[in-house]
Amino acid sequence: MTLAEAFSIGAREVVSLVGAGGKTTLLYALARELSASLRPGVILTTTTKILEPEPSRLFLQHLSPELSALKKWTAEQLSRYRCLLLARERLPDAKLAGVPSEWVDELFRMDGVSAIVTEADGAAGRPLKAPRKGEPVIPANTTLLVAVIGIEGMGRPLAEETVFRSAIASRLLNLPIGSTMTAEAIARLLGELIKGSPAGSRVIPLINKVDLPGGREKAEELARRILSLFPQRIGRVVLGRLRHTSAVEVIDA
User: Fold this and answer.
1) Secondary structure of residue 67 in the 3-state scheme
2) Which one of 17, 80, 149, 203 is CB 3.0 to 4.6 Å from 23, fit for a cystine?
3) Other CB atoms closer than 10 Å to residue 142's CB: what's the count?
4) Nearest residue to 177 via CA among 132, 218, 130, 214
5) Sign of torsion, CA 163 167 168 171?
6) How many Å apart are CA 230 and CA 235, to the nearest integer?
7) Looking at beta carbons, which pairs linking 227-235 to residues 24 or more positions away fall under 8 Å?
8) Are 114 and 39 in contact (CB under 8 A)?
9) What gap in Å lies between CA 159 and CA 164, rounded to an integer?
10) 107 by DSSP, 3-state: which?
11) Rg (CA), the chain
12) pLDDT digit of tens for each residue in the chain (253 aa)?
C-alpha cells in the first residue's frame, strides 16, 4: 500500500505532520511518492524548524523572510519543478526556520499548487512527544493531520530520553517520571497532540518502526487503544516502517 492510499490523499491536500518518531522521514517520503505520481505543485515546508537537507534532485529549495518573495519565486518555479521546499531563513544550528502557519494558506491558494506537506511539530529526535502551550503549530487550512509515533517508545520509562518534554507529559498524564509508557499512556499523549487539529481535518496516526523486534505486536495493541479512545475523531491508524522503504498498512475501526 502506498502512503497516498494509506492516508487517502486526494487531489488537493494540506498535510500537517505532528508528534515524534519519524516526521521528517515521512515528509520526504511523501515528497518522493507524490512527485513520482506525476502530481505537480508539491510544496514542503515547516511551521517550526527542520534540519537543512542535503541538496537533492527531489526538490528545489528557497529561503526568504518575506511571503511575497516566496510566492513570486514559487510561481516562477512551479512549471519547472514538481516539488519545492520553502523556509524563511537558515539558522546557526544547521536548521531552517519555518514559515508562519498563515503563510501556508496563502501558498495553497496559488495556481498550480496541489499539495503542501508541513512539519508542524518538533521532538528533538525522540520517539514520543508532549506538547507545550502553543504546540503543535498546525495551519488552519490543514485537511489531513498525521500524528507520528515511534513504537520504540512503548514499554520504556517516561523520561526525557524517550519523551520530549517529559515533565509536561508527566503532568498531562498524571504519571510520575519513570512510569512505563504503556499503550494507554501513549494513546492519551496522542490525544493531547491532536487537540488543536482543525475541526474539518482528517486525523490519522502513523505508528512508525514496526519492523523493530516486537514492534508489530506493540503497534497493533497501540492502534486498538487509539481507535477505542477516539472513536469520533480517528477511524484509521497506519502502521509502517519509513526508513529505506515506505512500507505501510492500515488498521481501521
Assistant:
1) helix
2) 17
3) 27
4) 130
5) positive
6) 8
7) 227/251, 227/253, 229/187, 229/188, 229/191, 230/187, 230/191, 230/194, 230/203, 233/194, 233/197, 233/203, 234/194, 234/203, 234/204, 234/205
8) yes
9) 8
10) helix
11) 18
12) 899 999 999 999 999 999 999 999 999 999 989 988 767 899 999 999 999 998 888 899 999 999 999 999 999 999 889 899 999 999 999 999 999 999 999 999 999 999 999 999 999 999 999 999 999 999 999 999 999 999 999 999 999 999 999 999 999 999 999 999 999 999 999 999 999 899 999 999 999 999 999 999 999 999 999 999 999 999 999 999 998 677 899 999 9
Distance CA 30, CA 32 (A): 5
**Measured between alpha carbons, how far is 3 from 247 in angstroms, rounded to an integer?**
8
The CATH number for 3-252, chosen from 1.10.287, 1.10.3470, 2.60.120, 3.40.50, is 3.40.50
| 134/142 Cα distance (integer angstroms) | 16
Would you call 42 exposed, middle or buried from its count of C-beta atoms within 10 A (0-12, 13-18, 19+)? buried
Residue recorded with cell 504519571 = 175
Instruction: Give the angle subtended at the CA of 177 by the CAs of 147 and 50, to the nearest 5°.
Output: 35
Rounded to whole angstroms, the Cα distance separating 9 from 26 reads 14
State residue 38's pLDDT score: 61
Decide: 20 and 127 in contact? Cβ < 8 Å.
Answer: yes
pLDDT of 22 reads 92
